[in-house]
Specification:
Helices cover 76% and strands 0% of the residues. The protein is mainly α.
């Protein structure tokens, strides 16, 4: 009886028969696994690119703020006067002229 049971549970015969019957389905599952792995790699690559761009944007914002504050400081009247002194130009500190219409 044990010999008949071993023949009935012949794993190699049943498994090879099952594999050949479902070969196209197994290929499909393998293809899905490859697509899943490729998708994970592409997603990780995109995440790294996004993080690099966010870092670059942050640096550019700091540079913009720095340049903007420097420009605002240099556009003050006293700073303009100081920058023109070495050239020999002196702006009169009379203030703005008022034009009256009669």
């Amino acid at each position: 009886m044990s010999k008949g049971l071993l023949n009935a549970l012949n794993i190699s015969h049943h498994s090879t028969e099952w594999v050949f019957r479902n070969f196209s389905f197994l290929l499909f599952l393998g293809f899905l696994a490859l697509v899943y792995i490729a998708n994970a790699h592409f997603a990780e690559k995109r995440v790294r690119e996004i993080q690099a761009l966010q870092k670059k944007i942050k640096e550019l914002k700091w540079e913009y703020t720095s340049i903007k504050s420097e420009t605002m400081y240099k556009s003050i009247q006293s700073q303009i006067d100081e920058s023109l002194e070495p050239v020999g130009l002196n702006l009169a500190n009379k203030g703005p002229k008022v034009i009256e219409v009669k």
